[in-house]
Amino acid sequence: MKHIELDDEEGDGGASGLMALVVTVIELLIETMEREAIRRMESGQLDPEEIERLGAQLQALEEEMEAIKADQGIDENVEQLRGDLDSLVSEAVEQVRDQELEGIDG
């Protein structure tokens, strides 16, 4: 199974790697909130004022995350972690699907 490497070349004991992991997880949460906001908008659950307020808040969160990445110099590390996490999730989904198919066939 693939693993994620948090240690880096900075020699800071993995502190910047840990910061990149935290930022990556927060970015994934923001993306999930955006998808939920879109789902709620499309289903008519939000009025125009709520849509405006939610959009402004999500935009502010994204800008803050970009500022943190630039300030910490971890933009490249975050992108690498996102790719690694995507691979891990895809691998896990594939394993679950294979186990389910084995259960159906077996």
Protein model, in words:
This protein is mainly alpha-helical and 106 residues long. 79% of the residues lie in helices and 0% in strands. It is built from 3 helices and no strands. It is flat, with a radius of gyration of 18 Å.
Strand content: under 5%
Averaged pLDDT, please? Answer: 88
Provide the helix percentage: over 70%
End-to-end C-alpha gap: 24 Å
Radius of gyration: 18 Å
Shape: flat
Give the H and E element order: HHH
Structural class category: mainly alpha
User: Biggest β-sheet, characterized?
Assistant: none
Q: Give me the count of strands.
A: 0
Q: Quaternary status of these chains? A: single chain
Low-confidence stretches: none
| Tally of individual helices | 3
In a few lines, what is going on in this structure?
By secondary structure, this protein is mainly alpha-helical. 79% of the residues lie in helices and 0% in strands.
Provide tags for this entry.
single chain; 106 residues; mainly alpha; 79% helix; flat
Present the secondary structure layout.
Elements: H1 15-42, H2 48-72, H3 75-105
Helix pairs in contact: 1-2, 1-3
